[in-house]
Design brief:
- The protein has 761 residues and is α/β, with parallel strands linked by helices.
- Among the domains are: 148 residues, 2-Layer Sandwich (Chitobiase, domain 2); 231 residues, no CATH class.
- It has 22 helices and 24 strands.
- The strands form six sheets. An eight-stranded parallel β-sheet has the order 8-20-19-16-15-14-10-9. A six-stranded mixed β-sheet has the order 2-3-5-4-7-21.
- A hairpin with a 2-residue loop joins strand 4 and strand 5.
- Helix 13 packs parallel to helix 14 and helix 21 runs antiparallel to helix 22.
Length: 761
């Protein structure tokens, strides 16, 4: 069933205009009038492209990319041979990853030369040429000589437009070369593919686990890796070890291989393979090694050794009652380190430069060491440690503490946990990978990106000050959307670069013009201030007003909920056996039925709304003044800001409503003591919020109907009804069922009052 669900989703997503835009490499055009300054020269049809003799698939892609850029952006068809030429040249040898991705860029009146130690570096140079031409708005260039290099040796983005962890589906995605070039265009050299080991097992050590589709799966994975490589991207395995039902034939034949029951996720009842069993450990490590031998263009592995994916017995989440007889006799850190080290050594035998990025993430589930110092000390020093810049921090706000349980743009970092992991890893000479987000946060992640560019810029400056060797720009909570904030992260990750403000200014003036760009920067600044007041992260993934926005219903009683307010959460495949999908396809509520927030938190959310409104008003006032070349892009930014405003208003309305509802039910506990007037007053306040919320929902519908970016149904990590249908269902529900609930509440109140009067007489 899940295959059919996903096949339907892929077909719909491929037709979504936003998805098509992401995959279209050249969405901008040069201005119609080309007037170069005195110190500039034009690149026109009198120019050609020349290359060094030896060229690989990445170099070939760089040539095609450059040709198509000039054709698509300015209708310029470069000649095959000409005295004026753009020379793409691979020369020299790199001593490390930084050098391998660095390039020199020299421009003169009749020659532009881009030189690097690898064709990937040359491709980055091609993208840089395109970048500065688009900033200028015409194909005009000044004389310059510059050498550019990245600050981080591994620069990893998540997948395009949402990812998912369902077995097998991740290798059947709608993908072409432009999927990966969208990432390398923003300076990335790596991405990951959710890889369930169960998809690739043969009939060797444990024939009971053999997958009949494994050869097809290898072929698909190799195709992905090759496509990624040609576009300058190394594909990493986001590793998922097998987990099975307790009555699986494998465990009947090999009871000694049965590991602990996995209860990290709701549902439990699934067992991992015990890596304290030498045969199992050998099986897992050799299985990963086989993947690397059959798919040589893989760059390495991303292993979440803490809370999901890379299963071991201590990931069960119930350490005190661990039901594995072998692992409960061992230290948790020893079990995890043995698995991680053994797999790393196995893939390194096959591919000498393969990297393993070990990510403790939620290691607190099994470790008494909150900063994983003892674990890090047991790992091979060649393994890279991943640490989040913000996660697991208790953030003191205005009269309350905000728990940063996942990714935030309110708290910029670094967290105490990050600082400790960084210190321990550097003491051991291990390379650190900083994990951040560059588009959205858990505060607000049902949108393409949060346009608070000044905050994203500050975040990058903080990361740079920590000097990690590598960076993960984003995981999978939104997917890569070619956003302005992702571009900003890229710009601030390469040397030489200017300040965040100057890079923000370049983006704004390129996309909105010099005058209107200034208004956009002012709005972005207000949005940045707004996000600094955001009171809480969402209470759960993919649900509630911060995700479904104006689709969040308000109700006295959770009753007769519309079908459109339910959907599928693919990440819950984590709770199923490998290859399963029961938890992922079960429909779950997309809404909150209650919210607990303090007065201070509610007040801070109101501040967020007020500041965001001010930013939206700036954009609205500026829109009529925007000149034609920038009108369309400005409208997109305005739509995004307005849509987010409806999401924020829905969140604030939800907070106020459920706070009043709690007061209402508390008063009802003793109606004889509390006056009817007091209770009615609360009901009227709630009704007033519902009316305000209905107007907000109608405003949201207008934006959603006109802009495909806000349709949650086309995201690949969930299966939701279209956003507009969710909002329509909520409006109907509040006009019918909820209205009835309030009428009954008032009638009940009058009945109670009458009974009190009767008893008195």
């Amino acid at each position: 069933m899940i295959d059919k669900i996903f096949a339907r989703k892929i077909a719909k997503t491929k037709e979504n205009q936003f998805f098509k835009w992401i995959h279209n490499p050249h969405n901008q055009k040069f201005h119609t009038v080309w007037r170069p300054d005195k110190d500039e020269f034009l690149i026109d049809e009198t120019w050609s492209i020349k290359t060094s003799k030896e060229i690989d698939e990445t170099g070939d892609f760089a040539i095609r990319e450059l040709k198509s850029f000039f054709e698509d952006t300015g209708n310029i068809h470069l000649k095959k041979n000409s005295n004026k030429s753009i020379i793409l040249c691979k020369e020299g040898n790199a001593g490390n990853r930084i050098e391998n991705d660095s390039y020199s860029f020299v421009s003169q009146e009749e020659q532009i030369k881009i030189t690097g130690c690898s064709w990937r570096a040359v491709l980055y140079g091609v993208y840089f040429l395109e970048q500065i031409l688009l900033e200028r708005g015409i194909p005009a260039l000044k004389k310059m000589s510059i050498k550019r290099q990245p600050l981080f040796d591994i620069r990893m983005f998540g997948d395009v437009y949402g990812t998912f962890t369902v077995s097998g589906l991740n290798i059947n995605r709608p993908i072409n070369q432009n999927t990966f070039s969208a990432l390398s265009r923003f300076g990335a050299n790596a991405t990951f593919n959710f890889t369930n080991l169960a998809d690739y097992i043969g009939d060797g050590i444990f024939p009971e686990l053999a997958n009949p589709e494994r050869e097809n799966n290898f072929e698909k994975l190799a195709k992905l890796a090759n496509l990624a490589h040609s576009a300058g991207i190394d594909l990493y395995l986001n590793a998922y070890n097998p987990k099975l039902r307790p009555d699986h034939l494998f465990f009947k034949n090999h009871p000694e291989a049965k590991g602990a029951t996995q209860q990290v996720w709701a549902g439990g009842g699934i067992n991992c393979l015990c890596t304290s069993n030498p045969e199992v450990l050998h099986f897992i490590s050799e299985s990963y090694a086989e993947i690397f031998s059959k798919v040589p263009h893989l760059g390495g592995m991303l292993a979440i050794i803490g809370g999901e994916g890379f299963y071991h017995c201590y990931m069960s989440g119930d350490v005190k009652n661990l039901d594995c007889p072998r692992c409960r006799k061992r230290c948790a850190e020893d079990v995890v380190a043995d698995l991680t080290n053994t797999v790393f050594h196995a893939i390194r035998k096959v591919k000498a430069d393969a990297e393993l990025l070990a990510w403790p993430y939620s290691a607190h589930r099994w470790s008494k060491d909150p900063f994983q110092e003892s674990l890090i000390e047991k790992l091979d020093p060649e393994i890279r440690i991943v640490a989040e810049i913000d996660k697991d921090h208790m953030y003191q706000k205005n009269g309350y503490i905000k728990k940063i349980w996942d990714y935030s743009i309110d708290f910029l970092g670094p967290s105490d946990r990050y600082l400790s992991i960084s210190k321990t890893s550097k003491k051991r000479g291990m390379k650190l990978v900083c994990k951040t987000e560059t588009s959205v946060s858990i505060e607000l992640f049902g949108v393409p990106y949060i346009p608070c560019l000044q905050r994203w810029g500050k975040r990058m400056e903080i990361i740079k000050s920590q000097q990690p060797e590598s960076i993960i720009y984003a995981y999978d909570i939104a997917g890569f959307t070619r956003s302005k904030t992702e571009e900003l992260a890229y710009r601030l990750s390469w040397e030489p670069c200017s300040t965040p403000y100057k890079e923000i200014k370049k983006i704004a003036e390129r996309d909105f013009g010099r005058v209107s760009g200034y208004s956009v920067i002012k709005a972005w600044n207000l949005f940045s201030k707004a996000m600094s007041h955001y009171p809480v992260l969402t209470f759960s993934y993919y649900t509630g007003p911060s995700f479904i926005g104006a689709g969040q219903p308000l109700m006295l009683v959770e009753k007769n909920m519309p079908e459109k307010l339910f959907g599928r959460l693919f990440y819950l495949a984590e709770a199923d056996e490998s290859g399963g999908g029961e938890k992922a396809i079960a429909k779950r509520p997309l809404y909150y039925s209650d919210v607990e927030m303090s007065k201070e938190e509610i007040n801070d959310m109101d501040k967020v709304v007020n500041l965001w409104e001010k930013g939206v008003n700036i954009l609205r006032l500026e829109y009529p003044e925007v000149i034609k070349p920038y009108k369309e892009e400005f409208k997109k930014e305005l739509n995004l800001a307005i849509y987010i405003l409806t999401v924020l208003r829905a969140t604030a309305n939800t907070n106020h409503f459920f706070s009043l509802r709690k007061k209402y039910f508390n008063l009802l506990k003793n109606p004889a003591k509390n006056s009817r007037r007091e209770i009615l007053k609360i009901l009227k306040k709630m009704e007033s919020i519902i009316e305000r919320d209905l107007k907000n929902a109608k405003d949201a519908m207008k934006i959603v109907a006109s802009d495909p970016r806000f349709d949650l149904s086309v995201r690949l990590d969930i299966d939701f009804p279209p956003t507009i249908e969710i909002i329509k269902a909520k409006i109907k529900y509040q006009k019918t069922e909820v209205k009835k609930q309030f009428l009954l509440a008032k009638a009940s109140l009058m009945d109670t009052e009458q009974k009190q009067m009767d008893s008195q007489t």
